[in-house]
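pls ignore typos typing on phone
fe (iii) ion + seq
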Amino acid sequence: MARAARLRAPNRIKETKMASLQNNFQAYRASILHFTDDPAFNDRAYRWHEDGLLIVNEGKVHMAGDYATLSGLLPQGAQVHDYRGKLIVPGFIDTHVHYPQTDMIASPAPGLLPWLEKYTFPTERQFKDPVHAGRVASFFLDELTRCGTTTAMVYCTVHPESVEAFFTESEKRNLRMVAGKVLMDRNCPDFLQDTAESGVRESEELIKKWHKRGRQLYAITPRFAPTSTEAQLELAGQLAKAYPDTYLQTHVAENTDEVAWVKSLFPNARSYMDVYDHFGMLRPRSMYAHCIWLDDADRTRMSETQSAISICPTSNLFLGSGLFNFERADAAQVPLSLATDVGGGTSFSMLQTMNEAYKVARMGGTYLPALRMFYLATLGGARSMQLEGTIGNFVPGAEADFVVLDPKATPLLARRSERTDSLEELLFAIALLGDDRTVAATYAAGAPVHQR
Ligand code: GUN
Ligand code: FE
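k done
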């Protein structure tokens, strides 16, 4: 039965798609790159069409392939957007970022904890005001799409108003975004505190209103263990169990002072990660930012529970937090993704984030090929979020979120990319020299959301 269904399915998809292609489709001619697996573990993990065609039908990918093969599918006289000389890749996925910290990016402080005290908490206070929150959310989303990011896992503030404002702006742009209200009931200023009970009640109200409304998805968001009581973590874990298809996001093992603080607050836990494990917070669709100071037992637990890591290199270098260990994470086969962590991170650009990730890997004695960096910023994010098939690549039926990259965006990048001898070299040049200027256009569900 299952076997027969599998054999029949592709034909059925093809017939319905072909029928509707007559009216509402768009076609884009460019070089096309996307991934079907992690290139670190599979030599045939990517699809590269040097002269490619991407056909989009009603906001979804109809097909991606060679122009020579696919152009015959188009009706006579069909218009094709000509992006020859440019590169189409899936929209970037930033798996950890704080929209309320947009206005305090690049604020100087000697490390995480003083930075939170001096800049982060006072800045987040302003998000009780829905007008302010809406303005910042709008700028933030424009900045993400300008950089080619079409999906992000986003922290709002402790105020439900900040979540309303964010989803409202995201929905206007029809972006697939994941966001949630920060839970924080201790060790922070009064003006940012909820309670174990109010935090979970407000989160549940937001889940009911926003989770799976259009392209919006909800993430239960305890800030990190030091700012939640055991009672709050307990309730957050219960909420995650009651709504298993929601997301859960938090910070872990970012900084050695933070790790020591957690040890003093939770003396019975085996490790920092074990605190979250104890409260049932390791599960599919859970996203852990940083993961620098983990041990192998933590990594094994993450792998067993399909919990994902969000690697935040610009933030980790900026705050002096430490170097992410790619080798140990890969040995345990933990799902990996890349993130900016703005405002701890110093750029909204996932290309700049790749650049820094490459150097972090080198400092740890590992080598991160450009193909893998592009995987981590696209399908790696989608897989970590259990959204493969929906976003992250160009399989038929996926939502048509994509970016048009211009390898001639700056004089230096043009000069360097003309002298590359392989796809790997071209991608490497784009990752190391590229930024928002490299993004010629961004499309969300088939509609343009940014044009340079
Ligand atoms: N840990 C707890 N809160 C934060 C935050 O806002 N940014 C970063 N980078 N780490 C945190
Ligand atoms: Fe963060």
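The longest helix spans residues 2-20. The two ends are 50 Å apart (CA to CA). more later
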